[in-house]
Protein backbone atom coordinates (compact mmCIF):
# COMPACT_ATOMS: atom_id res chain seq x y z
CA UNK A 1 0.00 0.00 0.00
CA UNK A 2 1.37 3.42 -0.96
CA UNK A 3 1.86 5.74 2.02
CA UNK A 4 -0.38 8.77 2.23
CA UNK A 5 2.44 11.24 2.77
CA UNK A 6 5.65 10.80 0.82
CA UNK A 7 8.75 11.06 2.99
CA UNK A 8 11.38 13.56 1.77
CA UNK A 9 15.06 13.92 2.64
CA UNK A 10 15.99 13.85 6.29
CA UNK A 11 16.57 17.00 8.31
CA UNK A 12 20.32 16.38 8.37
CA UNK A 13 20.52 16.29 4.58
CA UNK A 14 18.44 19.47 4.32
CA UNK A 15 20.67 21.24 6.84
CA UNK A 16 23.80 20.15 4.99
CA UNK A 17 22.43 21.42 1.67
CA UNK A 18 21.50 24.77 3.20
CA UNK A 19 24.91 25.15 4.85
CA UNK A 20 26.74 24.41 1.59
CA UNK A 21 24.49 26.82 -0.28
CA UNK A 22 25.06 29.57 2.30
CA UNK A 23 28.84 29.14 2.22
CA UNK A 24 28.81 29.21 -1.59
CA UNK A 25 26.79 32.43 -1.65
CA UNK A 26 29.13 34.08 0.87
CA UNK A 27 32.20 33.11 -1.15
CA UNK A 28 30.65 34.35 -4.41
CA UNK A 29 29.60 37.62 -2.74
CA UNK A 30 33.05 38.20 -1.25
CA UNK A 31 35.12 37.26 -4.31
CA UNK A 32 32.98 38.37 -7.24
CA UNK A 33 30.39 41.02 -8.15
CA UNK A 34 27.79 38.66 -9.55
CA UNK A 35 25.38 39.30 -6.69
CA UNK A 36 25.63 43.09 -6.85
CA UNK A 37 22.44 43.48 -8.98
CA UNK A 38 20.60 41.16 -6.58
CA UNK A 39 21.81 43.20 -3.62
CA UNK A 40 20.65 46.41 -5.31
CA UNK A 41 17.19 45.02 -5.94
CA UNK A 42 16.92 43.64 -2.42
CA UNK A 43 17.73 47.07 -1.05
CA UNK A 44 14.43 48.30 -2.50
CA UNK A 45 12.59 45.80 -0.30
CA UNK A 46 14.77 46.41 2.74
CA UNK A 47 14.27 50.15 2.48
CA UNK A 48 10.62 49.67 3.37
CA UNK A 49 11.58 47.62 6.44
CA UNK A 50 13.99 50.37 7.54
CA UNK A 51 11.18 52.89 7.21
CA UNK A 52 8.76 50.70 9.19
CA UNK A 53 11.23 49.98 12.00
CA UNK A 54 12.05 53.68 12.29
CA UNK A 55 8.38 54.69 12.35
CA UNK A 56 7.85 54.29 16.14
CA UNK A 57 10.80 56.54 16.95
CA UNK A 58 9.59 59.20 14.56
CA UNK A 59 6.09 59.02 16.00
CA UNK A 60 7.51 59.35 19.50
CA UNK A 61 9.59 62.34 18.54
CA UNK A 62 6.58 63.98 16.89
CA UNK A 63 4.38 63.48 19.94
CA UNK A 64 7.12 64.66 22.32
CA UNK A 65 7.69 67.80 20.30
CA UNK A 66 3.97 68.60 20.38
CA UNK A 67 3.83 68.42 24.19
CA UNK A 68 7.01 70.45 24.84
CA UNK A 69 6.57 73.17 27.45
CA UNK A 70 6.18 76.76 26.35
CA UNK A 71 9.03 77.87 28.61
CA UNK A 72 11.51 75.53 26.95
CA UNK A 73 10.40 76.66 23.50
CA UNK A 74 10.77 80.34 24.40
CA UNK A 75 14.23 79.77 25.89
CA UNK A 76 15.32 77.77 22.86
CA UNK A 77 13.96 80.48 20.56
CA UNK A 78 15.98 83.17 22.35
CA UNK A 79 19.09 81.01 22.19
CA UNK A 80 18.63 80.43 18.48
CA UNK A 81 18.14 84.13 17.85
CA UNK A 82 21.41 84.90 19.64
CA UNK A 83 23.28 82.22 17.70
CA UNK A 84 21.76 83.43 14.42
CA UNK A 85 22.94 86.98 15.16
CA UNK A 86 26.47 85.77 15.91
CA UNK A 87 26.54 83.64 12.79
CA UNK A 88 25.36 86.54 10.64
CA UNK A 89 28.22 88.64 11.97
CA UNK A 90 30.69 85.88 11.14
CA UNK A 91 29.06 85.38 7.75
CA UNK A 92 29.76 88.99 6.80
CA UNK A 93 33.45 88.45 7.50
CA UNK A 94 33.46 85.13 5.67
CA UNK A 95 31.78 86.74 2.66
CA UNK A 96 34.56 89.32 2.45
CA UNK A 97 37.20 86.60 2.79
CA UNK A 98 35.48 84.52 0.12
CA UNK A 99 35.46 87.43 -2.33
CA UNK A 100 39.12 88.08 -1.60
CA UNK A 101 39.90 84.40 -2.15
CA UNK A 102 38.06 84.47 -5.48
CA UNK A 103 40.07 87.47 -6.65
CA UNK A 104 43.34 85.81 -5.62
CA UNK A 105 42.40 82.63 -7.46
CA UNK A 106 41.60 84.64 -10.59
CA UNK A 107 45.04 86.25 -10.37
CA UNK A 108 46.62 82.83 -10.02
CA UNK A 109 44.61 81.56 -13.01
CA UNK A 110 43.10 78.79 -10.88
CA UNK A 111 39.82 77.08 -11.69
CA UNK A 112 39.30 75.25 -8.38
CA UNK A 113 35.95 75.64 -6.66
CA UNK A 114 35.79 77.86 -3.60
CA UNK A 115 32.53 76.44 -2.21
CA UNK A 116 31.45 72.85 -2.85
CA UNK A 117 27.87 71.83 -3.53
CA UNK A 118 26.34 69.74 -0.75
CA UNK A 119 23.16 67.72 -0.30
CA UNK A 120 21.51 66.65 2.94
CA UNK A 121 21.15 62.92 3.65
CA UNK A 122 19.70 61.01 6.59
CA UNK A 123 21.17 58.03 8.41
CA UNK A 124 18.78 55.08 8.26
CA UNK A 125 20.91 52.15 9.43
CA UNK A 126 24.20 50.94 10.87
CA UNK A 127 26.30 47.89 10.13
CA UNK A 128 25.80 45.35 12.96
CA UNK A 129 29.31 43.96 12.49
CA UNK A 130 31.36 45.25 15.47
CA UNK A 131 34.60 45.03 13.47
CA UNK A 132 33.51 47.49 10.78
CA UNK A 133 32.45 51.12 10.96
CA UNK A 134 29.79 51.57 8.28
CA UNK A 135 26.44 53.34 8.09
CA UNK A 136 23.54 53.39 5.63
CA UNK A 137 22.08 56.65 4.26
CA UNK A 138 18.90 57.36 2.32
CA UNK A 139 20.61 58.73 -0.81
CA UNK A 140 21.69 56.49 -3.64
CA UNK A 141 22.78 56.33 -7.25
CA UNK A 142 19.57 57.89 -8.54
CA UNK A 143 20.24 60.95 -6.35
CA UNK A 144 23.64 61.54 -7.99
CA UNK A 145 25.75 59.89 -5.29
CA UNK A 146 29.03 58.41 -6.54
CA UNK A 147 31.68 56.08 -5.14
CA UNK A 148 34.28 57.82 -3.01
CA UNK A 149 32.04 60.82 -2.33
CA UNK A 150 32.99 62.63 0.92
CA UNK A 151 30.43 62.68 3.73
CA UNK A 152 30.47 65.11 6.66
CA UNK A 153 28.26 66.36 9.46
CA UNK A 154 27.98 69.73 11.18
CA UNK A 155 31.34 69.25 12.93
CA UNK A 156 33.66 67.67 10.38
CA UNK A 157 34.38 64.82 7.98
CA UNK A 158 32.76 61.46 8.66
CA UNK A 159 33.87 59.19 5.80
CA UNK A 160 33.23 58.33 2.17
CA UNK A 161 30.72 56.36 0.10
CA UNK A 162 31.94 52.81 -0.63
CA UNK A 163 28.81 51.07 -1.95
CA UNK A 164 26.00 52.36 -4.15
CA UNK A 165 22.41 51.19 -4.44
CA UNK A 166 19.52 52.83 -6.31
CA UNK A 167 18.08 54.68 -3.31
CA UNK A 168 20.60 54.04 -0.52
CA UNK A 169 24.37 54.06 -0.02
CA UNK A 170 26.89 52.68 2.46
CA UNK A 171 29.41 55.03 4.02
CA UNK A 172 32.76 53.90 5.43
CA UNK A 173 33.58 55.99 8.50
CA UNK A 174 37.00 57.50 9.22
CA UNK A 175 37.46 55.28 12.26
CA UNK A 176 37.24 52.01 10.34
CA UNK A 177 40.44 50.01 10.64
CA UNK A 178 40.79 49.89 6.83
CA UNK A 179 40.42 53.62 6.28
CA UNK A 180 43.10 56.33 6.13
CA UNK A 181 42.96 60.02 5.22
CA UNK A 182 45.75 62.56 4.55
CA UNK A 183 45.61 65.41 7.08
CA UNK A 184 47.65 68.38 8.15
CA UNK A 185 48.04 70.26 11.41
CA UNK A 186 46.06 73.48 11.12
CA UNK A 187 48.59 75.35 13.29
CA UNK A 188 51.72 74.78 11.21
CA UNK A 189 50.73 72.76 8.12
CA UNK A 190 52.51 69.55 9.19
CA UNK A 191 51.27 66.68 6.97
CA UNK A 192 50.43 63.20 8.24
CA UNK A 193 48.16 60.19 7.65
CA UNK A 194 45.24 59.60 10.05
CA UNK A 195 44.17 55.95 10.18
CA UNK A 196 41.16 54.36 11.79
CA UNK A 197 41.48 52.07 14.79
CA UNK A 198 38.05 50.43 14.86
CA UNK A 199 37.18 52.59 17.86
CA UNK A 200 34.54 55.23 16.91
CA UNK A 201 36.23 57.79 19.17
CA UNK A 202 39.88 57.46 18.20
CA UNK A 203 42.21 57.95 15.25
CA UNK A 204 45.95 57.39 15.06
CA UNK A 205 48.59 59.29 13.13
CA UNK A 206 51.03 56.92 11.49
CA UNK A 207 54.75 57.51 10.98
CA UNK A 208 55.00 60.91 12.67
CA UNK A 209 58.62 61.75 13.50
CA UNK A 210 59.45 61.91 17.17
CA UNK A 211 60.74 65.47 16.69
CA UNK A 212 57.67 66.68 14.75
CA UNK A 213 55.99 69.89 15.93
CA UNK A 214 52.67 68.44 17.06
CA UNK A 215 51.09 68.73 20.47
CA UNK A 216 47.90 68.05 22.36
CA UNK A 217 44.94 70.17 21.25
CA UNK A 218 46.11 70.67 17.64
CA UNK A 219 43.33 70.64 15.06
CA UNK A 220 43.79 68.24 12.14
CA UNK A 221 42.16 69.23 8.86
CA UNK A 222 41.99 67.46 5.50
CA UNK A 223 44.96 68.33 3.31
CA UNK A 224 43.27 67.58 -0.04
CA UNK A 225 46.11 65.26 -1.14
CA UNK A 226 44.88 62.35 -3.23
CA UNK A 227 41.97 64.40 -4.68
CA UNK A 228 39.45 62.35 -2.68
CA UNK A 229 38.55 64.63 0.25
CA UNK A 230 38.24 68.43 -0.14
CA UNK A 231 40.88 70.43 1.69
CA UNK A 232 40.26 72.43 4.84
CA UNK A 233 37.56 70.38 6.58
CA UNK A 234 38.08 69.43 10.27
CA UNK A 235 38.98 65.79 10.82
CA UNK A 236 40.15 65.33 14.42
CA UNK A 237 41.73 66.96 17.46
CA UNK A 238 45.01 65.65 18.88
CA UNK A 239 44.35 64.11 22.29
CA UNK A 240 47.65 62.47 23.21
CA UNK A 241 51.25 62.59 21.98
CA UNK A 242 53.65 59.98 23.40
CA UNK A 243 57.40 60.39 22.81
CA UNK A 244 59.67 57.37 23.22
CA UNK A 245 63.38 58.00 22.96
CA UNK A 246 63.95 54.47 21.73
CA UNK A 247 61.49 54.73 18.83
CA UNK A 248 61.86 56.83 15.65
CA UNK A 249 58.14 57.69 15.53
CA UNK A 250 55.86 59.24 18.10
CA UNK A 251 52.51 57.76 19.11
CA UNK A 252 49.80 60.31 18.28
CA UNK A 253 46.14 59.67 19.12
CA UNK A 254 43.31 61.97 18.05
CA UNK A 255 39.56 62.27 18.59
CA UNK A 256 37.33 62.79 15.51
CA UNK A 257 35.58 66.14 15.41
CA UNK A 258 32.47 64.62 13.78
CA UNK A 259 29.86 62.99 15.99
CA UNK A 260 30.17 59.57 14.38
CA UNK A 261 27.83 57.85 16.86
CA UNK A 262 25.29 60.66 17.22
CA UNK A 263 24.84 62.49 13.91
CA UNK A 264 21.62 61.66 12.10
CA UNK A 265 21.67 64.20 9.29
CA UNK A 266 24.74 64.28 7.04
CA UNK A 267 26.05 66.25 4.08
CA UNK A 268 27.19 64.76 0.78
CA UNK A 269 29.90 66.91 -0.83
CA UNK A 270 29.83 67.32 -4.62
CA UNK A 271 33.30 68.74 -5.36
CA UNK A 272 34.99 69.32 -8.70
CA UNK A 273 35.52 65.91 -10.32
CA UNK A 274 38.00 67.14 -12.93
CA UNK A 275 41.58 65.98 -12.74
CA UNK A 276 44.38 68.51 -12.11
CA UNK A 277 45.50 68.15 -15.74
CA UNK A 278 42.00 68.95 -17.02
CA UNK A 279 41.72 71.98 -14.75
CA UNK A 280 45.12 73.27 -15.90
CA UNK A 281 44.25 72.72 -19.58
CA UNK A 282 40.91 74.49 -19.30
CA UNK A 283 42.51 77.38 -17.40
CA UNK A 284 45.19 77.76 -20.10
CA UNK A 285 42.54 77.72 -22.84
CA UNK A 286 40.50 80.37 -21.03
CA UNK A 287 43.58 82.57 -20.62
CA UNK A 288 44.49 82.17 -24.32
CA UNK A 289 40.95 83.10 -25.37
CA UNK A 290 41.08 86.19 -23.14
CA UNK A 291 44.42 87.21 -24.70
CA UNK A 292 43.01 86.88 -28.22
CA UNK A 293 40.01 88.99 -27.30
CA UNK A 294 42.31 91.66 -25.86
CA UNK A 295 44.42 91.72 -29.02
CA UNK A 296 41.34 91.92 -31.24
CA UNK A 297 39.98 94.82 -29.20
CA UNK A 298 43.33 96.70 -29.22
CA UNK A 299 44.16 96.29 -32.96
CA UNK A 300 41.92 99.11 -34.38
CA UNK A 301 43.11 101.57 -31.75
CA UNK A 302 46.76 101.04 -32.77
CA UNK A 303 46.07 101.61 -36.48
CA UNK A 304 44.62 105.12 -36.07
CA UNK A 305 47.66 107.21 -35.05
CA UNK A 306 50.26 105.36 -37.15
CA UNK A 307 51.47 106.70 -40.49
CA UNK A 308 51.75 103.27 -42.12
CA UNK A 309 47.99 102.73 -42.34
CA UNK A 310 47.28 106.06 -44.04
CA UNK A 311 48.32 105.06 -47.61
CA UNK A 312 45.73 102.25 -47.61
CA UNK A 313 42.87 104.77 -47.91
CA UNK A 314 44.52 107.98 -49.13
CA UNK A 315 46.85 108.80 -52.02
CA UNK A 316 50.56 109.06 -51.22
CA UNK A 317 50.59 112.77 -52.00
CA UNK A 318 47.77 113.48 -49.57
CA UNK A 319 49.40 111.47 -46.82
CA UNK A 320 52.71 113.25 -47.25
CA UNK A 321 51.46 116.69 -46.26
CA UNK A 322 50.70 116.20 -42.56
CA UNK A 323 53.58 113.84 -41.89
CA UNK A 324 56.61 115.60 -43.27
CA UNK A 325 57.64 118.56 -45.35
CA UNK A 326 59.70 116.38 -47.66
CA UNK A 327 57.44 114.84 -50.31
CA UNK A 328 59.86 112.19 -51.59
CA UNK A 329 59.91 110.01 -48.46
CA UNK A 330 56.16 110.36 -47.97
CA UNK A 331 55.49 108.98 -51.45
CA UNK A 332 56.66 105.55 -50.37
CA UNK A 333 54.04 105.28 -47.66
CA UNK A 334 56.63 104.69 -44.86
CA UNK A 335 58.16 107.00 -42.27
CA UNK A 336 61.83 107.76 -43.05
CA UNK A 337 63.91 105.90 -40.54
CA UNK A 338 67.33 107.08 -41.82
CA UNK A 339 68.54 109.38 -44.60
CA UNK A 340 69.88 106.38 -46.46
CA UNK A 341 66.40 104.89 -46.61
CA UNK A 342 64.90 108.12 -47.94
CA UNK A 343 67.33 108.52 -50.85
CA UNK A 344 66.12 105.63 -53.03
CA UNK A 345 62.54 106.87 -52.74
CA UNK A 346 63.44 110.05 -54.67
CA UNK A 347 65.45 108.27 -57.40
CA UNK A 348 64.00 108.77 -60.93
CA UNK A 349 64.42 105.05 -61.68
CA UNK A 350 61.06 104.25 -59.98
CA UNK A 351 58.18 105.59 -62.07
CA UNK A 352 55.65 104.52 -59.45
CA UNK A 353 56.45 107.65 -57.43
CA UNK A 354 55.54 110.10 -60.16
CA UNK A 355 53.70 112.43 -57.86
CA UNK A 356 56.88 113.21 -55.93
CA UNK A 357 58.71 114.22 -59.12
CA UNK A 358 55.83 116.41 -60.26
CA UNK A 359 55.89 118.28 -56.98
CA UNK A 360 59.65 118.81 -57.37
TrEMBL record:
Residue ranges, compositional bias (Low complexity): 281-354
Domain Rod shape-determining protein MreC beta-barrel core per the UniProt entry, residue ranges: 124-269
Annotated segments matching region Disordered: 278-360
InterPro entries, alphabetized: Cell/Rod_1, Cell/Rod_MreC_2, MreC, MreC_beta-barrel_core
An annotated GO BP: regulation of cell shape
UniProt KW keywords: Cell shape
Pfam families: MreC
Keyword Lipid biosynthesis appears in the UniProt entry: no
An annotated GO cellular component: plasma membrane
Family: Belongs to the MreC family.
Protein's UniProt name: Cell shape-determining protein MreC
Gene that encodes the chain: mreC
Amino acid sequence: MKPLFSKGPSLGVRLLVLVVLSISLMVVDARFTLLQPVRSQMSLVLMQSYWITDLPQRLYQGVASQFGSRTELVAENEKLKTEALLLQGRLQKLAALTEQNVRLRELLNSSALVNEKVEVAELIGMDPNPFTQRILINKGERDGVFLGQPVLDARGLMGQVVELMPYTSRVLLLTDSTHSIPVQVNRNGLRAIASGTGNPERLELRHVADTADIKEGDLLVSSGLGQRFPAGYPVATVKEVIHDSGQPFAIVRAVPTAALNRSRYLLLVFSDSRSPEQRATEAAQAQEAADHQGQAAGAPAQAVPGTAAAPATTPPAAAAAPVSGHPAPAATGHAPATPAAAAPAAAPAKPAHGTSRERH
